[in-house]
């Protein structure tokens, strides 16, 4: 995917590489879907001088969520789809630290990418802190973070921050026209609104075909749902077993739908703001809780329906 808005990050990174004392730990901070992980991979390859014709380099190591359990591990070994763990575990950090006791394989530098670093278990974060405090010579850390505030302050304080801004809607629309040329315009518009400046999130929205979900949410906030039929339709459109990415997309879409209500119109903003806060809470909880898809859809629908009632009162 074409990466937008990375010019300043590249300038800062390359300027540091050209200096005599490059900082050993970098925090890549920004909204999910703005391309931080892709930047980390490309920057790491520049750092170690990777041959562009070689896909995997022995001095680039990536820590991310692994299989959830032994059953999911077997699926991965068999080449089947598998469910990810909800966090990066201490065993993974310990394994990485074992590598750090040896010299880099192909040169003088080694890159450790942690993606996303804000999904580190507490014990894993404490273990990582020790490596950041006493980094081996030639080792550089790139921590991808969607929510830097979730990281330990002591980890943040040891990192140089690279910020990745959100992207204007017009640029995202242009990108979607290239990558998803056959998507209907209503889906594209809903994707851009839900993504809130994240090209990756917008593309994921289109690929997940959430257009029907967007339409149902809009009908709920415009007309309410006194007989619960729209909420039932919403549950069916979300699906019986949505994965984490789909749930995240649905929650982002619900939040953007509410945000559209407070646009200077005669809507009483307080119930809308309360509903939005509840959606933010759900978005924060969903990575670590196993939500029942049907109950989650009903809760989202009810929050939207309550906001619709606020709109009706404001209109008199």
UniProtKB/TrEMBL annotation:
Gene3D superfamilies cross-referenced by the UniProt entry: P-loop containing nucleotide triphosphate hydrolases (3.40.50.300)
Residue ranges of the region described as Disordered: 50-82
Cellular component GO terms, alphabetical: DNA polymerase III complex
Positions with biased composition (Basic and acidic residues): 67-82
Domain of life where this protein originates: Bacteria
InterPro entries: DNA_Rep/Repair_Clamp_Loader, P-loop_NTPase
Protein name: AAA family ATPase
């Amino acid at each position: 995917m074409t990466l937008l808005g990375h010019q300043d990050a590249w300038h800062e990174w390359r300027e540091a590489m050209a200096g005599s004392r490059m900082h050993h730990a970098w925090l890549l901070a920004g909204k999910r879907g703005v391309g931080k992980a892709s930047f980390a991979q490309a920057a790491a390859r520049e750092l170690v001088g990777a041959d562009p014709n070689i896909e995997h380099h022995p001095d680039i190591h990536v820590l991310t969520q692994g299989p959830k359990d032994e059953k999911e591990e077997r699926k991965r070994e068999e080449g089947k789809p598998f469910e990810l763990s909800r966090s990066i575990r201490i065993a993974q950090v310990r394994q990485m630290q074992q590598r750090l006791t040896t010299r880099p394989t192909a040169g003088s530098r080694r890159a450790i990418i942690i993606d996303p670093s804000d999904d580190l278990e507490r014990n894993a974060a404490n273990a990582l802190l020790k490596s950041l405090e006493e980094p081996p010579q030639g080792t550089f850390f790139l921590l991808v973070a969607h929510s830097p505030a979730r990281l330990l302050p002591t980890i943040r304080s040891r990192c140089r921050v690279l910020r990745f801004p959100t992207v204007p809607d017009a640029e995202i629309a242009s990108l979607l026209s290239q990558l998803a040329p056959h998507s209907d315009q209503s889906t594209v518009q809903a994707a851009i609104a839900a993504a809130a400046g994240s090209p990756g999130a917008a593309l994921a929205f289109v690929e997940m075909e959430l257009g029907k979900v967007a339409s149902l949410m809009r009908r709920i906030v415009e007309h309410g749902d006194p007989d619960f039929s729209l909420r039932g339709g919403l549950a069916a459109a979300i699906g019986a077993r949505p994965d984490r990415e789909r749930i995240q997309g649905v929650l982002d879409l619900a939040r953007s739908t509410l945000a559209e209500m407070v646009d200077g119109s005669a809507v009483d903003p307080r119930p809308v703001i309360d509903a939005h806060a509840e959606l933010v809470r759900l978005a924060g909880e969903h990575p670590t809780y196993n939500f029942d898809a049907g109950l989650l859809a009903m809760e989202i629908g009810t929050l939207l329906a309550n906001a619709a009632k606020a709109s009706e009162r404001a209109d008199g």
